[in-house]
Design a protein that fits this description.
One of its GO terms (molecular function) is acyltransferase activity, transferring groups other than amino-acyl groups. With 141 residues, the protein is an alpha+beta fold. It has a single domain (2-140), classed as 3-Layer(aba) Sandwich (Aminopeptidase). 31% of the residues lie in helices and 34% in strands. The longest helix has 15 residues, at 82-96.
Amino acid sequence: MSARWLNSKGIYQWRPEYFNLDKVIKFMNNGSDVYLAELNNEFVGTYILTWSDPFIWKELDNLESGYIHKFAVNRDYQGFRIGSFLLKSAEEQIKLKRKTLIRLDCMADNIRLNQYYKDNGFNFIRRINGEGWSANLYEKK
């Protein structure tokens, strides 16, 4: 739902097909941790933690970092501060693994999301460019 909503706003952070059971199982089989947030018997948010991300972070990828991926909040719960709660939860999980850096990335042209991460204490590291896309890398100590 979040992917479709973003696409309708002209923001191509994700494609809807990235959120399917096969992709989630692939993450889990690769050692990632998948989290779902539930409120009143409804899923309200999700994120995935990975312990390496050489595709995005290239030479900066390291064993001291935890990487937040597929961070999303159900649009019906906008304004409930679920996103901030999920980020704090991810940070705690990363700390429990004795990692010292919390990292994430987002599309460079998603101005609102980039500001959201800055507002939540993440520091801009650099911009990377792929084929037809650009992303900004952020981390927090």
